[in-house]
Amino acid sequence: MTAIPLRAIAVVPAAGSEARFGGRKLLADVGGQPLLDRTINSLLEGGASEVIVVVGKDARAELERDVNAMNDARVRPVENHDPSRGMFSSIQEGMLTASGDVVLVFPGDMPYVRAETVRRVIAEWTKKRGIVSPRYKGKRGHPVALPIAYRDEIVATPSSSNLHEVIKKHLGQRVDLEVDDPGVIRDVDRREDLSPGTSIAIVPAAGAAERFGSAKMLADIDGLPLLERTIRALLEGGVDHVVVVLGPDGGRIASEVGVLTDRRVSTATNPHPERGMFTSIQAGLRAGAGDPILVLPGDMPFVAPATVSALLARYATHPAIVSPRLDGRRGHPVVLPGTLRSEIVNASQAMTLFQVLGAHAALRVDLDVADRGIVRDVDRPSDLGEAP
Q1: Which CATH number goes with the domain that contains 254?
Q2: Nearest CA to 175 among 183, 167, 187?
């Protein structure tokens, strides 16, 4: 006997006020497409059979015109005649016409949830048949999966209430699914919540350079100090702000690397560089924040700006830990979600960046590039010659 495929129906409240954003939030550009497109596509790619998008009457025509996913046969717009009643009223409007096995409630302003996370939530519901919430670092998020049997109860609840109040009546049915996806707790309320926002690069340049035998960061490469080449690759590749971390004796570097006077560049000091590069990364992140975060050691001057641009573009469409890869070998710069900043800053100084990233293996993606500079650092003067 052939099993009947599970029907997962998503209800996407998208009729709320955009006052704090400044208007047209659902059409804001996220990785080259409207924000609402990203949200809907995560659901469709994650296995939703149908997506019910609840919109305000005045916004419907614009969204259907400018959001490509709204014209997908699996997407159905529903109007909330009075969205001022709150998001729960939009959930109710969507639930009224939902018909399937499980309902995924997923606010329209959450474009950073990965399709794989949606797929896992559906799979977990298939096993447990309860209320499934994805949870990231102890915090519950969206999409929330509910049995279709709760539809009538949700619709009959006063619109002044909220979904949480309904769920509280069924705590025995609640299941948390641990995910390594910060997007489940990340909505867009203001423009600064968008990604990529202000990208930041941390450039550790405080090492002793003993094997080089002289001031490595000032070594001449085609008429520019080595460190300047590294910084310029980041700026030309599209990074908004670069924090260069120097040691306590970095005065000469600060005076001889001209690009350090660029308004997009700032410096931080690591008072104890002998404790390792990770402490310089921590010092840089204490001095600045952004999303995404790039980490590029100062002694890697041969990375192409085009590689930096490609990494930023990849992050914009897939917010994750992105590593460039050449012939199967990972290199730098590594791109990190801004949400990892506090974890890195608060980690033990005895750790390495590799160890921190190892705790987020499911969040890692590789970008294959034809750039030998991503695996080419300068350790000795002989490394300044032609690349093999």
Answers
A1: 3.90.550.10
A2: 167
**56 bridge partner residues:** 80
Band the pLDDT of 374: cuts 50, 70, 90: very high
328 φ/ψ sector (left φ>0, alpha ψ -120 to 50, else beta) = left
What does the alpha-carbon distance between residue 75 and residue 51 come to, in Å, rounded to a whole number? 5
- What confidence score (pLDDT) does residue 387 get? 52
The answer on 251 and 140 residing in a single domain is no
pLDDT digits (tens, 9 = 90+) for 112-171: 888 889 999 999 999 989 999 999 888 999 999 999 999 999 999 999 999 999 999 999
Distance CA 259, CA 316 (A): 27
What's the token pair of residue 277?
């590069």
Cα 240 from Cα 260, distance rounded (Å): 14
Same domain, 199 and 186: no
Q: Look up the domain containing 297 and give its range.
A: 195-384
**pLDDT score at 197:** 58
Predicted confidence (pLDDT) at residue 48 exceeds the cutoff of 70: yes
Q: Indicate the average pLDDT of the chain.
A: 90
268: enclosing H helix or E strand: strand 265-269
Q: Is a pLDDT exceeding 80 seen at residue 281?
A: yes
**How many domains are there within the chain?**
2
Which stretch of DSSP H or E encloses residue 90? Answer: helix 87-96
**CA quadruple 295, 299, 303, 305: dihedral sign:** positive
Last residue of a domain, one of 190, 210, 238: 190
Average pLDDT of the segment spanning 327-340: 94
Contacts from 189-192 at CB under 8 Å and sequence distance 24+?
Answer: 189/20, 189/21, 189/109, 190/20, 190/21, 191/21, 191/22, 191/28
Question: Is the per-residue pLDDT at 373 higher than 80?
Answer: yes
Residues 283 and 266: their CA atoms lie apart, in Å, by: 12
CB atoms within 10 A of CB 137: 11
